[in-house]
Amino acid sequence: MTGSEASPSFRLAYVPGVTPSKWVRIWNERLPDVPLALLQVSAADAAGVLRDGGADAAFLRLPVDRTDLSAIPLYTETTVVVIPKDHVMAAVEEVSAAELADEIVLHPLDDTLDWERPPGRPAFERPATTADAVELVAAGIGVLVVPQSLARLHHRKDLTYRTLSDVPESRVALSWPEEKTTDLVEDFIGIVRGRTVNSSRGRAQDRPERKDKRPEAGGARRKPAAGGTAGKATGRTAAKGSRGGAGGSGKSARGASSGGAKGAKRGKPRRRS
């Protein structure tokens, strides 16, 4: 590498609620010479960061326009509703979407949760961020529907959350620009998919060549090691020869053995009655 060439690095973006620490640790173990830089972005901005070249890959929430982005779905999260602890819905473990009909449901601008609220529900100006929406919930302005990890991330003593049924779960995926599927992106895909260190890249040039154990046509066969396979082969050859090898030695041996046995039996004196 010349002095003008920059050292390789990998930029990983992630949305709030996603914890990439496990994959980052494995990356640092396998590629210690390639620094990994983390960049937290809002759910609404994650795809744009990838398209603008601000990150090589990103953990984001689906849906995402896959026209120019590739995505590997990883896991799903339960959708919950964040409410004050003294709210009437805090008395139950699960809330249906229909039970939010009379509630002001906050929908932050940085949220990409894919669910349709029934018509007729009270409207409210959208807060800029999830953190702003949480503040409004605490003030008794409305309730907030988010993935469970975000409810935990913005935990407050005066708030709680309940599982929201009848709505889609939040899906987390690893995404990257399709035209920029670099070797380092392939490395990270391998780590996320749980490949071992020997197969993490999955590129042909990184895989060891397959050794063909069969001898080439016209080539000499490999001699067995002394005292091991050779001994077994010699023993099998000798046994085969004794059973019927060249010169009829095997047959003669069987005849002699058989005849001797029969002769010994016939020569045994009979017992007198």
TrEMBL record:
Domain LysR substrate-binding: 10-194
Disordered, as annotated region: 196-273
MF terms in GO: DNA binding; DNA-binding transcription factor activity
One GO location term (cellular component): protein-DNA complex
Record keyword Transcription present: yes
Gene3D superfamilies: 3.40.190.290, Periplasmic binding protein-like II
Superkingdom in the source lineage: Bacteria
Biased composition (Basic and acidic residues): 203-216
SUPFAM superfamilies on file: Periplasmic binding protein-like II
The keyword Nuclease appears for this protein: no
Feature: compositional bias, Basic residues: 263-273
Cross-referenced PANTHER family: HCA OPERON TRANSCRIPTIONAL ACTIVATOR HCAR (PTHR30346:SF0), TRANSCRIPTIONAL DUAL REGULATOR HCAR-RELATED (PTHR30346)
Family affiliation: Belongs to the LysR transcriptional regulatory family.
Protein name: LysR family transcriptional regulator
Gene source species: Streptomyces albireticuli
